[in-house]
TrEMBL record:
InterPro entries: AAA+_ATPase (IPR003593), ABC_SmlMolc_Importer (IPR050093), ABC_transporter-like_ATP-bd (IPR003439), ABC_transporter-like_CS (IPR017871), ABC_transpr_FbpC (IPR015853), P-loop_NTPase (IPR027417)
Domain spans labelled ABC transporter: 9-245
Entry keyword Lipid biosynthesis: no
Pfam families: ABC_tran
GO BP, one annotated term: quaternary ammonium group transport
Coiled-coil positions: none
Protein name: ABC transporter ATP-binding protein
GO cellular component: membrane
UniProt-listed PANTHER family: PUTRESCINE TRANSPORT ATP-BINDING PROTEIN POTG (PTHR42781:SF5), SPERMIDINE/PUTRESCINE IMPORT ATP-BINDING PROTEIN POTA (PTHR42781)
CDD domains found in the cross-reference section: ABC_Carb_Solutes_like
Length: 257
C-alpha cells in the first residue's frame, strides 16, 4: 500500500477548545495536516497558541468539536466520538520525565510491556537499553541518572511497546542548552533507526528545525504553514511566517545542513 496515498496521521479541519460554563472557547480552528509513516513533525508556536491542545486531541485526552483524526485510516476522533487513549497505540513523552522513582531503569522501561511474557519483555527492554546506550544503568534508579539520561529512559519506555506514533511535549525543555540540542539529535537518530513517526511540541525554533522533517507553525490557533524547514525558509506561506522565524535560527540551520 502506498504511504503517500495513506498518511499515517491525518488531522482534518479540526476545531478544538474548552467548554466554559454554557459557552465554548475555541482554541484551534480549521487545523489540517498529514504526517507520513516514518516522518517526524514539530508543532512550533508561542506559549498559549494551542500546541498542547492539538497533542492532547491526538492522544485522546481532549475531544474534537469539528473535523476528524485518522491514524492509519482508522477514525480516532470526531464530534461525539473518541477512541480511548489506551486503544490508540500512541506513545507519549513529556518534559518532566515521569519515571517511577521506586523502579529501576529496566523496570521503568518494561512498564508498558506487562502483557508480554517475561522473556519477550526482557528481550525488548535489553534492546531499548542498548538503543539509548544505558545498558550499564539497568539496575540503577532514576535519581542516579542525569536529566538527559532520564529523558532517554522516558523515550525508551515510550517506544518499548512499539507505538504507531510518538508524541513529545517539550521533552527537552528542562535540560540545559547543550544537553537539549544533543539529546534532540540523539532522539531523532533513535526514531529514524526504529522508523518511528513522531510529533514534537516546542516553542524552541532551533529544536524544531534540527529535529523535524516537517514543521507546523501555529499562531492564535491557526496552522500558518506545514512544511520542511527548507521550504519554510525559502517559501514562507505568509509574512507572518517570515516574521516569526528568527534569522539566527535560519543561520544556525543552514550551517548544519
Ligand atoms: N482545560 C482548559 N480549560 C480552558 N482553557 C484551557 C484549558 N487548557 C488550556 N486552555 C487554554 O487553551 C489555550 C492553549 O493552551 P495550550 O496548552 O494548548 O497552549 P500551548 O501552545 O501548548 O502553550 P505552552 O507552550 O505554554 O504549553 C491557552 O489559552 C490555555 O489557557
Amino acid at each position: 500500500m502506498n504511504n503517500i496515498m495513506h498518511p499515517l496521521l491525518q488531522l482534518q479541519q479540526l476545531t478544538l477548545g474548552y467548554s466554559q460554563g454554557s459557552s465554548f472557547k475555541k482554541i484551534i480552528q480549521n487545523f489540517s495536516l498529514d504526517l507520513q509513516k516514518g516522518e517526524i513533525g514539530s508543532l512550533l508556536g508561542s506559549s498559549g497558541c494551542g500546541k498542547t491542545t492539538v497533542l492532547r486531541a491526538i492522544s485522546g485526552f481532549e475531544p474534537v468539536y469539528e473535523g476528524h483524526i485518522y491514524l492509519e485510516n482508522h477514525l480516532l476522533a470526531e464530534k461525539g466520538r473518541m477512541v480511548p487513549p489506551e486503544e490508540r497505540q500512541i506513545g507519549m513523552m513529556f518534559q518532566d520525565y515521569a519515571l517511577f522513582p521506586h523502579l529501576t531503569i529496566e523496570k521503568n522501561i518494561a512498564f508498558g510491556l506487562h502483557k508480554l511474557s517475561k522473556v519477550a519483555a526482557k528481550k525488548i527492554t535489553d534492546e531499548m537499553l542498548e538503543l539509548i546506550g544505558l545498558q550499564q544503568s539497568a539496575k540503577a534508579y532514576p535519581h542516579e541518572l542525569s536529566g538527559g539520561q532520564q529523558q532517554r529512559v522516558a523515550l525508551a519506555r515510550a517506544i518499548a511497546p512499539s507505538p504507531k506514533l510518538l508524541l513529545l511535549d517539550e521533552p527537552f525543555s528542562n535540560l540545559d542548552v547543550d544537553t537539549r540540542e544533543k539529546l534532540a539529535l540523539d532522539v531523532r537518530a533513535i526514531l529514524k533507526e526504529k522508523q518511528l513517526s513522531a510529533i514534537l511540541v516546542t516553542h524552541n525554533q532551533i529544536e524544531a528545525f534540527v529535529f523535524s522533517d516537517k514543521i507546523g507553525i501555529i499562531s492564535q490557533g491557526q496552522l500558518l504553514q506545514w512544511a520542511s524547514a527548507q521550504e519554510i525558509i525559502n517559501s514562507p506561506a505568509s509574512s507572518a511566517v517570515k516574521d516569526y522565524i528568527r534569522q539566527d535560527v535560519i543561520t544556525a540551520y543552514q550551517k548544519m545542513v
